[in-house]
Write a structure and sequence with these properties.
single chain, 2 domains, three-stranded antiparallel sheet, 3 helices, elongated
């Protein structure tokens, strides 16, 4: 099964990201020439990792009938250069209720099954193709 999103340029450094019937805006902070009206691509990547980790944690918690109220996931990464990239990712899961070590370990194992986590650990091949849909101008 192939996953797809479409990204349309809105102007300046803003883009609209569409997936199925959903859309969100990607932008840059004002200091990067944007309008700060949406998350940056790096923030989207951290959001993907955090929500995926959260999904797998919730599946574990449901299986063990553990309370999920107040679950908060914080994902962070450092910026590196040459080449520009994110590095040293960290996922923190915060619960309102106390969990014994067995469940803490179980949640960590569940998060390690996350699609985005595993994609980052096993980098995929990325092909880049440039096409044009321009109509040729008659001479």
């Amino acid at each position: 099964m192939r996953t797809e999103v479409l990204v349309d340029h809105l102007g300046e450094v803003q883009f609209e990201v569409k997936a199925r019937s959903h859309s969100i805006i990607c932008d840059q902070p004002m200091e990067n020439g944007g309008f700060d009206e949406g998350m940056t691509p790096a923030e989207f990547l951290l959001a993907s990792l955090g929500t995926c980790a959260g999904y797998y944690a919730v599946q574990y918690m449901k299986a063990w009938k553990l309370p999920m109220e107040g679950l908060r996931i914080r994902t962070t990464a450092d910026k590196a250069k040459a080449p520009a990239r994110l590095t040293d990712f960290r996922i923190e899961l915060e619960f309102l209720t106390e969990l014994d070590q067995r469940h803490r370990d179980g949640i960590v194992r569940a998060v390690h099954a996350c699609l985005i986590h595993n994609t980052l650990l096993n980098p995929p091949r990325i092909d880049v193709e440039v096409t044009t849909s321009a109509v040729p101008i008659a001479a």
